[in-house]
Each structure stands twice: as structure tokens, then as C-alpha cells.
């Protein structure tokens, strides 16, 4: 079975919900490679005793680091329990992370229900070739210079 690269992110008010979800799905997740923003990753490691590649905390650039991993093809699934009711000082980073996941056709779960759908999909543990967008033409376009 191929290992999927799963990135886990949670805003402060959603961390407990993500921890509970990870605990519920521990056996399924252990078959894959996990990464997370700093605080979330450390909480998962402490609570479940599993290895998680951690990046910086979200407000300190962790969201952007995971975005770069997506661009480089190092994330297959993004689980991001975000809090829609709280303002976040790094809101532009959050939007950029979600946007880049869509740009690169990475499945995203933004709450427990959507995460349940992803982890229970037959594709979760099966080989899956995600369609990669071809942005060569976009990168090669010539803009008029004034």
C-alpha cells in the first residue's frame, strides 16, 4: 500500500477536535506519513505517541511551509480544521494555503465531517494518481511590457 503524505493543521479553537479525530483514526493514519504545523504536530505526538514532521507554528510561517510542500508535490491530503468564527492575524496565510491546495488539486478537509469522508474513502488506502494541472502555459505566457 502506498503511503500518503497527510498535512494536519488546526486553529487553536479546533485543536482538540482535530486531536480527537486523529485519535479516532489513529490506525488508519499510522499507515501514512504525517506532517503538521508546529503546535498541532507537537500535540499529536504527545497525545498519541506517533511521529509527525513538524513545521513552524501557523502564524510564524507554518501555513506557508505546508503550502510550499504542496507546490513541491509533498502533500497528498490536507486536513485543516480552521475556525471560521475567530479572526486570525495570519488570515492571508490561511487563505493562501487553502488556495494553493486547490491550485494543485490536493483534497482538503476543513472539518471533522469532511475529514471522515476522506479517511473512509476507498481511495485513502489505495494507489491514486491525482490529476496534476499543467501550468506550463501559464508560466510561459508573455505579458505586455509598457
Task: Give a topology summary.
Elements lengths: L4 E6 L4 H10 L1 H4 L3 E4 L1 H11 L4 E2 L7 H10 L5 E5 L9 H13 L4 E2 L2 H9 L15 H5 L6
Helix pairs in contact: 1-3, 4-5
In short:
With 146 residues, the protein is of the alpha/beta class. The protein is built from seven helices and five strands; from the N terminus they run βααβαβαβαβαα.
Largest sheet: 5 strands, parallel
Oligomer: single chain
For the record, the CATH class is Alpha Beta
Kindly state the number of beta strands: 5
User: From N to C, what is the helix and strand string?
Assistant: EHHEHEHEHEHH
CATH superfamily membership: Methylglyoxal synthase-like domain
Which features does this protein show?
146 residues, alpha/beta, Rossmann fold, 5-stranded parallel sheet, 7 helices, 13% strand
Describe this structure in words.
This protein is of the alpha/beta class and 146 residues long. The chain has a single domain (5-140), classed as 3-Layer(aba) Sandwich (Rossmann fold), CATH 3.40.50. Helix content is 42%, strand content 13%. It contains 7 helices and 5 strands. The protein has helices spanning 15-24, 26-29, 38-48, 62-71, 91-103, 112-120, 136-140, and strands spanning 5-10, 33-36, 53-54, 77-81, 108-109. It has a 5-stranded parallel β-sheet with strand order 3-2-1-4-5, with helices on both faces. Strand 4, helix 5 and strand 5 (108-109) form a beta-alpha-beta unit. It is globular. The protein starts with a strand and ends in a 6-residue tail after the last helix. The mean pLDDT is 91.
Amino acid at each position: 500500500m502506498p503511503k500518503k503524505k497527510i498535512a494536519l493543521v488546526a486553529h487553536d479553537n479546533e485543536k482538540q477536535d482535530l486531536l480527537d479525530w486523529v485519535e479516532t483514526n489513529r490506525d488508519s493514519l499510522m499507515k501514512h506519513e504525517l506532517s503538521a504545523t508546529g503546535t498541532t504536530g507537537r500535540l499529536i505526538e504527545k497525545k498519541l505517541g506517533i511521529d509527525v514532521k513538524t513545521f513552524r507554528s501557523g502564524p510564524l510561517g507554518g501555513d506557508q511551509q505546508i503550502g510550499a510542500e504542496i507546490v513541491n508535490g509533498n502533500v497528498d491530503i490536507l486536513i485543516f480544521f480552521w475556525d471560521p468564527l475567530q479572526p486570525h492575524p495570519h488570515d492571508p496565510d490561511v487563505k493562501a494555503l487553502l488556495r494553493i491546495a486547490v491550485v494543485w488539486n490536493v483534497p482538503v478537509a476543513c472539518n471533522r465531517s469532511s475529514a471522515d469522508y476522506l479517511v473512509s474513502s476507498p481511495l485513502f488506502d489505495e494507489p491514486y494518481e491525482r490529476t496534476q494541472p499543467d501550468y506550463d502555459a501559464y508560466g510561459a505566457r508573455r505579458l505586455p511590457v509598457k
